[in-house]
Amino acid sequence: DTEVTQTPKHLVMGMTNKKSLKCEQHMGHRAMYWYKQKAKKPPELMFVYSYEKLSINESVPSRFSPECPNSSLLNLHLHALQPEDSALYLCASSQGSGIVNTGELFFGEGSRLTVL
Amino acid sequence: GDSVTQMEGPVTLSEEAFLTINCTYTATGYPSLFWYVQYPGEGLQLLLKATKADDKGSNKGFEATYRKETTSFHLEKGSVQVSDSAVYFCALSKGGNNRKLIWGLGTSLAVNP
């Protein structure tokens, strides 16, 4: 069983809707990530939160808005998406910085988003 | 810059065949190396890892050895099963304060009964 939990597992939304994806981890990890993945392609990094501060934004369009309410939770707010944004959105976590962090990521099962 | 190169798929094998998926990397320093697996309709799972040269990672019958001299981390399994059908991604990380995982393009494996 994955220790990173994502909800919802599936989401269908229109281009004018506002929705949110949620992610939770209880491993005490201090870094959390959002990735976007198209079928059979490697995941593409979107955002990284490190110690609850946004540390990386890979030039993601503003229609995607991340939020990290606390060290265990990560949200991705979606607004005015395009059909090409349909993808699997993966949340991941990793240990803190420094020598303890090997870079290993722990992934959730993903939220499959369809934009109509 | 840092990069990971994987053999292109798809790879199709019969059950009980031997599997090798090649992975080579380019990186400065001493990265950690990973194999992630993605089963149909699921998220990514860590399959195995190695954090220093000559380390061998192993899990579920899969093995990979971190070879610094050939900058390789090839994935092997002696006898594949239908349930091993998935997409396999090789990746590297510098770790520490570097949050970016460098991914290979993935290799799709189909195992037929």
What does this entry look like structurally?
- The complex is a heterodimer of chains A (116) and B (113).
- Chain A is mainly beta and 116 residues long.
- Chain A is built from no helices and eleven strands.
- In chain A, the strands form two sheets. In chain A, strands 2, 4, 5, 6, 9, 10 and 11 form a seven-stranded mixed β-sheet that branches. In chain A, strands 1-3-8-7 form a four-stranded antiparallel β-sheet, with no helix packed on it.
- In chain A, a hairpin with a 2-residue loop joins strand 5 (44-50) and strand 6 (53-57).
- Chain A is globular.
- Chain B has 113 residues and is mainly β.
- Chain B is built from no helices and twelve strands.
- Chain B has strands at 3-6, 11-14, 19-21, 23-26, 32-38, 45-50, 56-59, 62-65, 75-77, 86-93, 102-103, 107-112.
- In chain B, the strands form three sheets. In chain B, strands 2, 5, 6, 10, 11 and 12 form a six-stranded mixed β-sheet that branches. In chain B, strands 3-9-8-7 form a four-stranded antiparallel β-sheet, with no helix packed on it.
- Chain B is globular, with a radius of gyration of 14 Å.
- Chain A binds chain B through residues 2, 6, 31, 33, 40-43, 45, 48, 50, 55-56, 88, 90, 92, 94, 97-99, 101-110, and chain B through 31-32, 34, 36, 42-46, 49, 51, 87, 89, 91-101, 103-106, 108.
